[in-house]
C-alpha cells in the first residue's frame, strides 16, 4: 500500500499575464532580452514562460502529483517594480490583481493570491493593497525587490521613509509581505560582466535580496514596525548562514546606530523563510537551527522549479515528523489563514 502524499501549501508560485507571454514568445529578440535581464538563457525560459499563464490541467496536475493542496500565486519578477512611469505602474498593478482574482475565483480551493503593488506611488500602493486584501481576498503582497525610480538606473528599497504609509497599511491589515528577488542594479551588475550565469538565481538573486533584508534589519525597520511580517524565499537567501557574523560585526561597527533587539531576535519575531527552489538537507538543517522550524514554510518556485522535486525532498529530508508537517502546511495555514479541510 502506497502512503498518501504529505499535504502541502506552496507560497512562491509564479504566473505571468497571457498577453505578455504571447508577446515575448512571438519575438525571439524580445525573448533573448527578457531572458538576459533575468539571468537565464532563452532555452531555459521558453518552456517556463509557456507554463506561467496556465492555471488549469498542467499546473493543477503537477500540484496533485506532488500533494500540493494549495498554491498562493504571484506575478513573476520583475513585475510592477520595473515600470518607470508611476501612473502606468498603478494601472498595471490593478489590472494584474483583477486578472489573478479571476483565476483564483475559478478554483478557490486550490489557489490564493498575493497582491502586486506599484510602490512607485506609495499611497496608491497602500490603497491597492487594501483593495486586494479586503475586496479580492488576497493573502498578502509580494514585492519583486527594489522599485525602479527615475531613469531606471536607480532603485528604492523598502526601508526608505517614503514607504512608511505602505508598511502602516500592512500592519492594519495584518498580512505578510513576501520579498522576491530580481537582478541587481547596473553598478552591481558590472561585477558579473562576462559571467551572465551569475546575474540571476545562480548567484545574484540571493545576494541582492539578502542585502535588501539586511537594510531592513540594520535600519531599525522592525523597531518602527514591530508587528511587520516579512517572508523571504530560498531558505532565507543565505542569511541563516551569515546571521551570526553579521550581528557580531555590527556590534563591533554600529556606526552610531542603536537597535532595540539583536538581529536573531528580529528574525525570530518578524521573518519567515520558505524552501522555494532550495531543496537541500544541509541548508534546511542550518535554517532550523537558526530561525526555528516554526518560521519555515514549504514553497516550490513553480514553474522555475518543479513540484515533484520539491515534494520528494520535503517528504524524505531527515527532520522530525512534527517539523515536517509544520513546514509542509501547518505554518502556512496559521500565517495565511489557509484551511486545507
Give a short summary of the structure:
This protein is of the alpha/beta class. The protein is 50% helix and 13% strand.
Architecture overview:
The protein is α/β, with parallel strands linked by helices. It has a single domain (8-17, 53-335), classed as TIM Barrel (Alpha-Beta Barrel). Helices cover 50% and strands 13% of the residues. The protein has helices spanning 18-25, 28-37, 42-51, 57-66, 86-106, 122-135, 164-173, 186-189, 204-218, 221-224, 234-237, 239-252, 263-270, 281-291, 307-316, 321-336; strands spanning 8-15, 68-75, 111-115, 140-144, 147-149, 154-156, 177-180, 230-232, 271-274, 296-297. The strands form two sheets. It has an eight-stranded parallel β-sheet. Strands 5-6 form a two-stranded antiparallel ribbon. Helix 5 links the parallel strand 2 and strand 3. The two termini are 24 Å apart.
